[in-house]
Amino acid sequence: MNDDRRDLKQSFIDHLDFKEDTHVLRPLGNGGMGTVYLVNRRSLDRLEAIKILAVDDLKSSAELRQRFIREIRMLGSLRHPNIVRVNHCGVFPEGVPYFFMDYVEGTDLRHLITERKSQGIKFTLEESLDLLWPIAKALDYLHHRGKNSVIHRDIKPANILIPNESSGYPGAMLTDFGISISHDITSITQTGFYVGTPKYMAPELGSSDGATPNGTGMSGSAKSDGYSFALILLELLTLTSPKNFIDPATGAIDVSESQFPPMQIDDRRRLVAALQQELSNVPARRFATCSDFLDAASPISPAQRSENASALSVNDETLPESVHMNSSSVDTPVRAHTSLKKITALIGAGSTLVASLFAGASWLRSSNDSQYPDIAAEFPQLVGNKGWRDHPCKTGSSTDKISQLVECGNSNEGYAIAKLSSTGSWSDFMPEEDIRTLSNGKCKIKFSKVSDSEVFIAPLDLTENYLIKVWGAQAAEESVNMPIC
Hints:
Elements: H1 10-19, E1 22-31, E2 34-41, E3 46-53, H2 56-60, H3 62-76, E4 86-91, E5 97-102, E6 106-108, H4 109-119, H5 125-143, E7 150-151, E8 160-163, E9 173-174, E10 181-182, H6 222-238, H7 265-278, H8 290-297, H9 302-308, E11 317-318, H10 323-326, H11 353-357, E12 365-366, H12 373-378, H13 380-383, E13 393-396, E14 402-409, E15 414-420, E16 435-439, E17 444-451, E18 454-459, E19 466-471, H14 475-479
Parallel strand pairs: 11-16
Antiparallel strand pairs: 1-2, 2-3, 3-5, 4-5, 6-8, 7-10, 8-9, 12-13, 13-14, 14-15, 15-19, 16-17, 17-18, 18-19
Helix pairs in contact: 5-6, 7-8
């Protein structure tokens, strides 16, 4: 037997092989409710994931097994681009239930958080919202389906999958619906199973310090899912376990402005107010939907976000004003900037054009604003302190066409800003095809996606010529949010 399958009973392997035409490959993960394995569905010639439940009550009760089958079938009817689809379910001869799901190749949010903790780099508000918006939409879909509404009850980073680019999935995916609650079906959770992860559970479902939940008839609600969802945003922004925010005197989550990464004062106040409301111990005080919560926490209004989501298609398009232009109170005296419009793109391999732009540059000196004073003055939000989105910046050598040069990031992702000399112009480096002129009425830029992996931007309203290049797996997505002009 394959060593990767040694913990799986041979009778289970045989059943899947002969009854489901499925070959078990290896385990993907496990938890209190069961183990997930990667399998090959031979009849379909595709990889899927199978979850085999480990709940003794289900094995001993035919009634509970039937209830489980009905609930999984209901979950199989869910159709949302950010919900991992349940494809099929069954029961082993021993009475152990299982179900098949789509296999999403990638990682999960728990691992991303662990990685950031090891680096000591907090997620920015922008990064956090980008990760969580698809999940908010998925939860709203689950919660507002009338009599077919579903409460997840185990919202946590490990149940938010981050697909690889090549997977084709549109953003983060919500998974692990093995024990959810349907309002249309008497749920198996009502039998007294301990469901959920204590540190992400809403207070009405049990003790927030990890103790056994009080009571066995907890039904959960959209508001309890929303509470767990807000804890994840709090953890992304602080890299601190939610239980560390509990006020011993009140048992409530205590959120203050000083706990978050650098951001504009108005943005921080808005964020804290939204978190305080969604993390209230009183469910009725929380937001009606997860999207409402993120709308309140976001510096971008719903109308502006809807506009930003549309693809660029014509020259001289109108750009929405950034919240940075509307806010007069900021942590540091920096010039107001405008974010570019959202562009949807998948970024692939690197382009060789950058070699012609940055030929002769050497990245041997650490960041020092005095070495690129003009760039620092024109783009303080991009190269000041740690750089935009916490990318560390390094100084590059000048060339005959570049008088100042700074790179922020690493070989995998980042951006570079070049101040072009009198002999240089942005048109020397950007191809003539597919250059767009964008404007918000206050400033204009030239924008070009040179290849699937690189974006070039040239501000047009500055007294000097500057050229910005963005590269990496999320280059197009990153570039549209940069505070350029």
